[in-house]
Amino acid sequence: MMNWPDFLSRRLAERQGTSLWRHRQVCHSDGRLLSTADGQYLNFSSNDYLGLSQHPQIIAAWQQGARQYGVGSSGSGHVTGYTAAHHTLEQQLAEWLGYSHALLFISGYAANQGVIAALMEREDSIIADRLSHASLLEAAMHSPAQLRRFLHNDVGSLRQQLAKAGNGKTLVVTEGVFSMDGDSAPLEAIAQQARSTASWLMVDDAHGIGIHGDEGRGSCWMQNIKPEILVITFGKAFGLSGAAVLCDKHTAEYLLQYARHLIYSTSMPPAQAVALSAALRQIRAGEALRQRLRSHIRYFRREAQHLPFALMNSETAIQPLMVGDNERCSALSHRLRQKKVWVNAMLPPTVPPDSARLRITLTANHTQYDIDTLLEALHGSGC
Ligand SMILES: Cc1ncc(COP(=O)(O)O)c(C=O)c1O
Fold first, then answer.
1. How do beta strands 200-204 and 229-233 pair?
2. Residue 68, Cβ neighbours under 10 Å: how many?
3. pLDDT of 258-293, one tens digit each?
4. The domain at 25-53+286-380 falls in which architecture?
5. For residues 222 and 203, what is the distance between their CA atoms, to the nearest angstrom?
6. Is 3.40.640.10 the CATH classification of the domain at 73-268?
7. Ligand 1: residues whose CB is within 6 Å?
8. What is the pTM of this model?
């Protein structure tokens, strides 16, 4: 019989010394700059796309919420953890995005897991874009439904997979903006395919919400579709953390009865909900920030044409540079750090094999000078 220490040592030895070994580092970031014990860097790895994590009015709202409610929610929303702050935020989100209901979750990961686990049964099918986030694919793999993946953003492949679905319910799953590629899903065509087979569509718009569309309403709004299930997360453009599921009344009632990640988990602190309402106000009024971000994206893409890496098909804040080889990608990230520029290398299994990349993210907090510094560092990285 294998004992526990042997099991751990064996599995650690398999990874140690390979480029897949994951590190954490103590960081302090104000969004634009990031400091560690080794120095200060220009931060091009943050998902704080609008720079709201440091916004004084949002910080003040969190402080005021903590004075009013204390620092924790004291329980699941089904017990004592659903306050006026949670209720107000849900209503504001639903009104903003044109849904009758919004349900708050503690994270995007929990929302995706909770929704798929609650909705899907043995006879059902999940047809997911093959590059969907780990939280979606893992939930699908753990559910009793059959998982089929369609080729990335390929509506023909989706159609083929839909034709193979069984007799149960079918859920089509995709993202608005893909977290590792930065490209956008053809949502209108995907929604049409789903509708033509009476399937439901679930869109995770973690990276599109706050950025795309009128008042930052996201990818679905921009492409004029309304999926049955829309997941938005607050760890990116909102600058905080947490998530919400937008849906109709019937679905919300069902999730309140069956989504175990809601029922058996402490709800977010009410002060966080107060801060999220303040962040929502900034997002709705944040056209100047969105324009600044768009102008950085255009500038970066124009100047990065001259780099010896393939730019990806992305018009969003996520601008990965495809490197391919794991070791080379890690070495490039290390060399950028020596030039005081922080860009994380994304390696398999986070991305598909042989597609290691530098995941560059731009934010409204950067200046054009910062982007020039990044480009210079990339030019001089000996690639
Ligand atoms: C597309 C997507 N969905 C879900 C998540 C998980 O969200 P959270 O960080 O709130 O758990 C992420 C996080 O990185 C993501 O990129």
1. parallel
2. 13
3. 999 999 999 999 999 999 999 999 999 999 999 999
4. Alpha-Beta Complex (3.90)
5. 13
6. yes
7. 107-109, 112, 133, 135, 175, 179, 204, 206, 233, 235, 241, 243
8. 0.96
